[in-house]
Task: structure prediction
Amino acid sequence: MYRSHTCGELRPSHVGQTITLAGWVQTIRKFGSITFVDLRDRYGITQLVFGEELNQLLDDSPLGREYVLQITGVVEERSNKNLNIPTGEIELNVSALKILNKSVTPPFSIQDDTDGGDDLRMKYRYLDLRRNAVKRNLELRYAVNRSARNYLHENNFMDIETPFLIKSTPEGARDFVVPSRMNAGQFYALPQSPQTFKQLLMVSGYDRYYQIVKCFRDEDLRADRQPEFTQIDCEMCFVEQEDILSMFEGLVRRIFKDVKQIDYVEKIERMTWEDAMWKYGNDKPDIRFGMSLCNLKFPSHTFPGKPSMAELIDTANFPVFDNAETVVAISVSKASEYTRKQTDELIEWVKRPQIGMMGMAFIKCNPDGTFKSSIDKFYSEERLKAIASAVNAKPGDLILLLAGAEERTRKAMSELRLELGKRLGLRKENEFKLLWVLDFPLFEYDSDDNRWVARHHPFTSPKPAHIEMMINNDPVISDAAKYLEHPYANIKANAYDMVLNGNEIGGGSIRIYQRELQEKMFAALGMSKEESLHKFSFLLGAFEYGAPPHGGIAFGFDRLCAILGGSESIRDFIAFPKNNSGRDVMLDAPATIDQKQLNELQIQTVEK
Ligand code: ASP
Result:
């Protein structure tokens, strides 16, 4: 037996007992003939005291940081207690020491505020993982995992593994491919998600499936994405949207309770995709704070039926606004006293290439009821007042206005809103706000290929009321500039996203389960009959053998953990993550392979 207790376990109640610990040397402090060593394991730190006798031994073979020790000793009460750590009231008076293994000096200090930079810590991730901060994140990840499994198990879900070596599943990214030696010249794809398998499991009658599963997507790694990531992937049959929403609200509430001890009892808000875009310019709005958008001017087909205030904007001979497709505003509470420097800084912020605006106008609503604006030259006091009232701004507020092409301007305003929310401390880390976004468009228009693409994936069903619209209209877009006027642009999907604090943490849909409609969907996406059969004959075939109505959802497990852990980075919650270029710097992967392997696979590489 290597140890009788762990390094996090000993308390004053153990005083007098002889115990054995095993762990790593965190620190060594020598005071004359006494040496103190902090011994660390996964559970905590225990202070060891080496008295005179053993000190000689330490002089002969000195200890170093990260040495692995086995020690035996008697638990004693400390005279100098450290109440900051759970074992701080005791220490272990060492009577026997065995060095189980030595360590070279680690490249960075293994403590909470380490001196190791990101790259170094990733290269030596096995050492980084010894640090408390990382360990706590992995513990949280495991707690979320347990909580989800318990809930799903209690609700009759069955964990069923699905294969990794498969044929492409379309989730909108590129596939990672794996060459097959036994079928030279042919490739497997790694699943972007187990989507088609979980649907087949429904056809097979396993009416509640889940899996906490790796998914692989070869996409350019925008901020904080990983090429392999984990989903809590679920599917149910004989369900409608409402059944799914309530089952998975339950899951998230349970995770909050188990992991954060938070009773999320309030009703989870719901918003249509159109309202989210209208009010926040974003399909995953952070609703921890207001500051919603005021749409002064916008192309009528984008938000049919929504009231326009274009006349308020357009009749002042201000070319920037007159020529803009869209003018949106937000009102920043109590910011009318911003200095010139502060407003200039915000203007510079929206001009950054990532945001891409040419400029920004502002109106200061002075506390005395007057206005000061960067567009006074064009807009009379009276008109500024009318705009302020449209924007719902109060005296003391600052109105910010962006103008330009619809998509870019709306997105920029959404980013600006989030940035201001951050700067003004409105995005509180320990406040959690869940939201369902519903009624997404079924299709998106791909202007490069002049065709429709599935906004979610091709297995998502249209709203029942819109099925006719899909069946009875030709998908061909004759005038690309007017794609928004095509009936397909108005077809809504039976799809839903769960949003937490401005992050999409889950998404899913009620699926198509009839062969004809699925074929129609493939055709709508520009797939020929041959292509759809080549790619999906298994699914279309399965739909002919009594496929039940079904639907599901998948949660981004890494992201959910990061948010619950109060971090912006999913990497911190993954034991062995990749860097921003998709590299594992510890393994130094990806890497070239031997010529012999290439030959076996009948693969030739070409220099570009
Ligand atoms: N497979 C989908 C995704 O990965 C989720 C779902 O529709 O269940 O986003």
About this structure: The longest strand covers residues 18-31. The radius of gyration is 30 Å.
